[in-house]
Amino acid sequence: VKRRDQALRMLRNVNPVPETMDLSDEAASPQALRQAFTERRSEMQTQDSEMQTQEMVGERAQPRFRRPVVGFAVVLMVAAVAIATILVTRDGAAFDAASATDVEVVQEFVERLNIGDADGAVDLVAASPANDFLFPIQDRHLGFEGLAEFFEFYEGTDGTTDVSNCTDVPGQVICDATQMNALWDALGAPAVEGQMRFSVGEGGIAGVAWSLGPEPISTSRALFDAYKVWIEDERPDLADEAISGNGYINTTGTADLHLQLVDEYVASR
Amino acid sequence: MPGGSSTEARFQTLYRQHHDRVLRYCMRRVGRADAVDAAADVFVVAWRRIEQVPSGDRTLPWLYGVARRVLSNQWRSTRRFHRLFQRLGSMAREQPSEPERVIVQREEDEWVLDALNRLSRSDQEVLRLAAWEELSAAQIAEAVGCSPAAAQKRLYRAKGRLARHLGLKATDSPSSTTVLNGGGER
Lengths: 269, 186
Fold this sequence. Notes:
The complex is a heterodimer. By secondary structure, chain A is α+β, with helices and mostly antiparallel strands. Helices cover about 50% and strands about 15% of the residues of chain A. Chain B is built from seven helices and one strand. Chain B has helices at about 5-25, 30-50, 60-85, 105-115, 120-130, 135-145, 150-165; one strand at about 175-180. In chain B, helix 3 (about 60-85) crosses helix 6 and helix 5 (about 120-130) packs across helix 7 (about 150-165). The longest helix of chain B has 29 residues, at about 60-85. Mean pLDDT of chain B is about 80; it is low at about 90-100 and about 170-185. Chains A and B meet through helix 1, helix 2, strand 1, helix 6 and strand 5 of A and helix 1, helix 2, helix 4, helix 5 and helix 7 of B. Strand 1 (about 135-140) of chain A pairs antiparallel with strand 1 of chain B.
């Protein structure tokens, strides 16, 4: 957040037209503006008259589906108003993790991730998050700082997760889930589809594991391997920064790096 | 067509209160002469649609939204003219002035603006509205025509991307690794 605020402050400081700049010489009077508009209208004025064609003479035929269409439109409008009301009500209320059910905590966590609120997502994480968090993650315990970096990567690659049919079993919430991001999309990889198992305890979400079918994994693995080989061959100077072992390195900076590399990679094929 | 003394009074108030800010908005995005024309066009639209101009805090963002569209039209027509000029075989000596091009006076300004110009147009617009026009997320939503929640999300992400382009780092925390689509242990 500090990083973001600092960026906005720097931008504010390079405002090319500050509020203090005197613009009194630049303004035309409102009367002159209105006068110019009126003159332009009168110069452009045309006269329209309706000419009846044969089809318009006599009683206009009633469309057969008029009533059902109007009815459907009314139903749609009522549904839209109801959804808007729910959304407004929901936005207006602060989320209270202590009184929320485990399913509600999971849904709130996913929503915060999807709107790019990495700090808000971390707030819902338990004090000692497990190694295996959100995405399958290798090698090391992330801790809060690492987790926040990982969430930044998720945000930087426009990650989106949809969860549905969440069920609450002791200590866990299991949801049907679909996950996608811009990097996978550029590589032509399919969305992750499967089940997400959230471990939820007193302190919040302690871990996330995926159950996936074999087919999307093998397709994505092949795509990733080809991309990895290309990086090692064509951009060896960036390989250590971008990939590690057989996975992506997830930090704040590597989201942009990967999006640039994958553009080059796709263009080279 | 608007008419009546109350309408006229409202327009005059609108103009007095907001003209300078609209002009500044335009000057931050195009050259001075184009900005003056664009600001005038914005108030022509406001006069024509005076009944639809929202009141209170929503007025200025609404005018900014009109200004954005006026500048886009101006930019498109300049580009069309430029392309036609080239097709006719003339040697165009100047590139059309881009809406986002501004005069850079200091080297560090150029650095920040370079980072800004590397972002998408929508990211640039929400950042400018927040930093230069000092709008809230709700007002940005009015100006760009989206929901307040969407504006908040766009602004949050745009700030993050700008920070990355500026090379600002929060911490030197250890990196983590993930495997595409869950190829690792689970």
